[in-house]
């Protein structure tokens, strides 16, 4: 996977950084660390040198593990409900009282 453009032109240089995560507190520092590492090693060699930083940033941006964990918990809840282990009222925890805040 190459992170650089297929061909370079003034247009690709002008629009290279239009989409970024710098406005988000959660993923902004990870993006900067990954970009700094890629800038130091280049885009081709940086893919193997910066693999851990790129993987962390990708997980922060896409949240694939978090979504997979959510789906697994949801499927387990529904499985327990279909088998009769839990009633439908016991699927989720009860919300806090109104005056609890």
TrEMBL record:
Keywords noted in UniProt:
Disulfide bond, Electron transport, Membrane, Mitochondrion, Mitochondrion inner membrane, Respiratory chain, Transport
Q: Where in the cell is it found?
A: Mitochondrion inner membrane; Mitochondrion intermembrane space
Matches recorded under Pfam families: Ndufs5 (PF10200)
Which GO cellular component terms are attached? mitochondrial inner membrane; mitochondrial intermembrane space
Name the InterPro entries on file.
NADH_UbQ_OxRdtase_FeS-su5 (IPR019342)
KW Oxidoreductase (keyword) present: no
Membrane topology, from the record: Peripheral membrane protein
Question: Is Nucleotide-binding set as a keyword in this record?
Answer: no
S-S bridge residues: 27-60, 37-50
- The positions making up the signal sequence are none
What role does it play? Accessory subunit of the mitochondrial membrane respiratory chain NADH dehydrogenase (Complex I), that is believed not to be involved in catalysis. Complex I functions in the transfer of electrons from NADH to the respiratory chain. The immediate electron acceptor for the enzyme is believed to be ubiquinone.
Question: What family does the entry list?
Answer: Belongs to the complex I NDUFS5 subunit family.
Protein known as = Complex I-15 kDa
Please tell me the species this chain comes from.
Answer: Culex pipiens pipiens
